[in-house]
């Protein structure tokens, strides 16, 4: 959702003031609502009339611009239309519909506005499902994520990763992930008991291969490469380049529920440094709203299976119960807290405390929207 007050004010104040009661009925006509209430400002095709005609200083948005129109789900647009700008930390100058139009009428108007984006290769924002701790979501995004893992074992460690994601085009995303770790040394004679360093930097490319809003399904292909930038001797890197390919799947389910899955494998350039590994990741959850238009709370359960291609290797299963909390009123800053528990081989693998902080930077600066 673009964070321009006049975007909402121009669209919905026109509706609030101009929709005739004659449009009321059991099957709202979204095109009729738009033409009667919105076209005077936004034009018959949603491209926006000149500023000197409508009296706004800021340019009106172009609803035929798919990069803008496709990013957010209908529910977010309707929330601002129904409750006004403050419900998502926009200006109070954005009026609230209240009971002037029903939610069904707002949906009809939104459906017509969606038709202005004629390039259907852009996946809809409904597919931007809550991010799990490990399973990569299929939707391409503009985000910055800070992750931290704290193993429940010896020696102590704080494992951090800063991830930058940039969407480009209708179906693509670039990613760079930089790990920065603090580890306690196991050598009691060392002068400094703690060491820090940058790990193996990872570069990634994601592309949406399939999406169908009616079926609620999205599939993406992901290719990544980890570069040997970390110090292998201090335990900050694998000492070899590792290539990774995977498929990510997202499924919208009824009652604000969802399922996500990822199937992939890692292949090292030097098999003496690291083993090939295959993995399966699955996450399911549901969003709950304390108020109808409020912030969601999303509990999830994630299952992760990994297996190395090595003699006598066994499949390792982990469970990650977790909770994603929406921090900002604009819903562009989120916190997730989870605990990774080893279900198999638990005598040689530590549990982990896991947390991430996510900033959807396309929706506004980190300092806004609270």
TrEMBL record:
Keyword Metal-binding belongs to the record: yes
Gene source species: Vreelandella zhuhanensis
Keywords linked to the UniProt accession: Heme, Iron, Metal-binding, Signal
MF terms in GO: electron transfer activity; heme binding; metal ion binding
InterPro entries for this protein: Cyt_c-like_dom (IPR009056), Cyt_c-like_dom_sf (IPR036909)
Domain Cytochrome c positions: 25-117
Domain of life: Bacteria
Gene3D superfamilies per the UniProt record, alphabetical: Cytochrome c-like domain
Protein name: C-type cytochrome
Signal peptide range in chain numbering: 1-24
Entry coiled-coil feature ranges: none
